[in-house]
Amino acid sequence: MSDVENKSAVLEAFRDGMRHVASTVYAVTTFHDGKPFGILATAVSSLSFDPPSLLICINQSASLHEPLASVETFCVNVMGLTNRDVADNFMATKTAEDRFAVGEWENSHGVPVLTNAQSSFVCRIAHRHEYGTHTIFIGELIDAHHREDAAPLTYYNRHYIDISKAPDR
Ligand SMILES: Cc1cc2nc3c(=O)[nH]c(=O)nc-3n(C[C@H](O)[C@H](O)[C@H](O)COP(=O)(O)O)c2cc1C
């Protein structure tokens, strides 16, 4: 197998492998020039408790990327099952106005926060690191809210699944 063939086989196996990693879905949002911006993301991770921080990986081609290059804050909205309509609308729309037309959003600390999300984490950008196609943004927590009664919206093999119904093993 040539190097090129091997590289594309590895990339395909990487995509297949990652598609089968079940991930919580997040709506990452910010305000820029008076307009809300946001995309759905799964590449989000808790990073440190001191300082309390998390990281998000955003494709440099995403509409949210340029705003995040210049703003100071963003919000990670952890999507619950009841936020499925918001997730579907994010994927179905392009403009800022249309993307935030579904769901109840409030401006908190200068960023759009989904009021009935499972959790919301408002962060101040502490660090940006470009790597390959993406930029890693490290955010230090300014504010956080959590709803105990919510079940997570989970993405697995290109579908949303309800893991709250999965039996304990
Ligand atoms: C379930 C799911 C997870 C995604 N995760 C990420 C992610 O972690 N980072 C990212 O940059 N884009 C991610 N995307 C793609 C973005 O949501 C979005 O579709 C893409 O950036 C194009 O958006 P735009 O039209 O606003 O540029 C994900 C999409 C879906 C459906």
TrEMBL record:
Which InterPro entries does this one have? Answer: Flavin_Rdtase-like_dom, NADH-dep_flavin_reductase, Split_barrel_FMN-bd
Cited SMART domains: Flavin_Reduct
Q: Does the keyword Flavoprotein apply?
A: no
- This protein's source sits in the domain of life called Bacteria
Which GO-annotated molecular functions does the record name? FMN binding; riboflavin reductase (NADPH) activity
Keyword field: Oxidoreductase
Q: Which Pfam families match?
A: Flavin_Reduct
Task: Report domain Flavin reductase like positions.
Answer: 18-162
Q: Does the keyword Oxidoreductase apply?
A: yes
Q: What is this protein called?
A: Flavin reductase
